[in-house]
Amino acid sequence: MSVISSWNLTISLNTTISLSWRSSLPSRAIFPRPKKPKTLVVLATALGAKPTVLVAEKIGDAGIQLLKTFANVDCSYNLSPEELCTKISLCDALIVRSGTKVTREVFESAMGRLKVVGRAGVGIDNVDISAATEHGCLVVNAPTANTIAAADHGIALLTAVSRNVAQADASVKAGKWERNKYVGVSLVGKTLAVMGFGKVGSEVARRAKGLGMQVIAHDPYAPADRARAIGVELVSFEEALTTADFISLHMPLTPATSKMFNDETFSRVKKGVRIINVARGGVIDEEALLRALDSGVVAQAALDVFTEEPPPQENKLVRHENVTVTPHLGASTTEAQEGVALEIAEAVVGALRGELAATAVNAPMVPAEVLLELSPYVALTEKLGRLAVQLVAGGSGVKFVKVTYASTRGPDDLDTRLLRAMVTKGLIEPVSSVFVNLVNADFIAKQRGLRLTEERIVLDGSPEKPLEFIQVRIANVESKFVSAISNSGEITVEGRVKDGKPHLTKVGSFGVDVSLEGSIVLCRQSDQPGIIGKVGNIISEENVNVNFMSVGRIAPGKQAVMTIGLDEEPSRDALKKIGEITAVEELVFLKL
Ligand SMILES: NC(=O)c1ccc[n+]([C@@H]2O[C@H](COP(=O)([O-])OP(=O)(O)OC[C@H]3O[C@@H](n4cnc5c(N)ncnc54)[C@H](O)[C@@H]3O)[C@@H](O)[C@H]2O)c1
Ligand SMILES: O=C(O)[C@H](O)COP(=O)(O)O
């Protein structure tokens, strides 16, 4: 048995999860919805209560109908920020598109009721993810259903720009016939740089190749083989800028991509480049683009998205002769909107039911089969956390916790994020009013100064079970049950899953065996005959059912720890009577 790795708690908030994509078939066919994860009740609404879902922007009817099968649905569009904040405390879920800013104030106004925000689309830049995470609110999006629509719109703008379609249309409608003015440029043989080779970018690339273009792409995170598979070369930002005749933007808006196209970038592009933006307005410095258009460095731009939407009337870019604009229509096809509505409704209903979302933005995505396998360990880790913290003597602040996972599997075959979150939940919830879930566990731990270290023990044997045992240790504290302190000087509890049920198997240095359900009495006594009977009598007089009892001792006649699992809570009086048995040296009652 060897300890092969240990590491500190890493805070991984704001994780964007992308799903895979395939070829150019209609979007619903291309992107099979992710398999449904099995249930894990981390976000579930109060039992029996029908949740309320606020739909703050119009989504497809199919999604609304699906939501109505499970929840009260309030479709209130065009709410002001104040109205949204007022309504939100009455809602369990909120669904928005890109037009609603889900700010920190929204989460604060929710007073803890809001459990899930569903973004009916891809971009989550209008949702304050940090605030959502801090408030334990899951954010899910619908990342796949509008890909084709967005790619088609990118191509529509590319071709429109190359042939001055919008300008010529306006000219004819103004009674003119300017055939010489609107001579376009050919696409065949021209170089298109796709910036952001994700779902939309790769579909744009595929289509542009069909139009005879040379396609290069820049994406620091995209695998080269995926690009190669469709005949696209991944290049550096510099190469993309300096060689492209057309640039099409498809990256998300993040702090790293904000104003990625600015005066400095425009100074490096090929003179006369044409730019298409169907991603987010904020990735371009709009003032800089205006200057580049005025100077002729950029010949034309086509913009579906703007820093401020809708853009102000006087926006010079919108009015520019060489700019073609659409009002954020990338995702707006009947088919995409139906798909997005269903995708987001399923995700929101799933999250409200307590299922782990496959499209979670701010929580680890745990595949269904992994979740199924881990679920008894999820219960075990939470209960070990609960027991350990209840063993701490009042006044000792819990700061250093070590979780040890003993497994026959290598570290790469065991994802412990879920288990770590559950230990944190178990440690914090019994001693605070904070609600901890998979979304906010790391944040809450950090906020409370809890340093949770994880350690792996790799055991020999066949890796059928994910884990053999799990140990939770709290260092630098005193215990109200001295026997819970192991030789290492830490409060130590250890458990394992037996017949699918979590069991406590060690307290301090004492081996015990009790099923972790109901509540537990731990009592240390000097080992002698008759104690079990005496304790049993006191409990039976209370009419409380004992579901498990075990005694672990150092050696015959020495000290022993008796663990009694109870279906209900015994009275204080009964506990006092057990404590008064002469051989009993210490006693603690723990709620699971
Ligand atoms: N106009 C619309 O209506 C519309 C519709 C759909 C999507 N979008 C927007 O398009 C964008 C892409 O959507 P998607 O579904 O393809 O997302 P995606 O997550 O599949 O792809 C985004 C890609 O951008 C890459 N990227 C990240 N940082 C980058 C950087 N600095 N430089 C280059 N590439 C970078 C990522 O690696 C990823 O491959 C999002 O911003 C989304 O909101 C707009
Ligand atoms: O990010 C997206 O999915 C698109 O920008 C679509 O946004 P919308 O839902 O507001 O059309």
UniProtKB/TrEMBL annotation:
This is D-3-phosphoglycerate dehydrogenase. Keywords: Amino-acid biosynthesis, Chloroplast, NAD, Oxidoreductase, Plastid, Serine biosynthesis, Transit peptide. It catalyses: (2R)-3-phosphoglycerate + NAD(+) = 3-phosphooxypyruvate + NADH + H(+). Gene3D superfamilies: 3.30.70.260, D-3-phosphoglycerate dehydrogenase, domain 3, NAD(P)-binding Rossmann-like Domain. InterPro entries: ACT-like_dom_sf, ACT_dom, ASB_dom_sf, D-isomer_2_OHA_DH_cat_dom, D-isomer_DH_CS, D-isomer_DH_CS1, D-isomer_DH_NAD-bd, NAD(P)-bd_dom_sf. Pathway: Amino-acid biosynthesis; L-serine biosynthesis; L-serine from 3-phospho-D-glycerate: step 1/3. It comes from Gossypium arboreum. Signal peptide: none annotated. Belongs to the D-isomer specific 2-hydroxyacid dehydrogenase family. Its main location: plastid. One of its GO terms (cellular component) is chloroplast stroma.
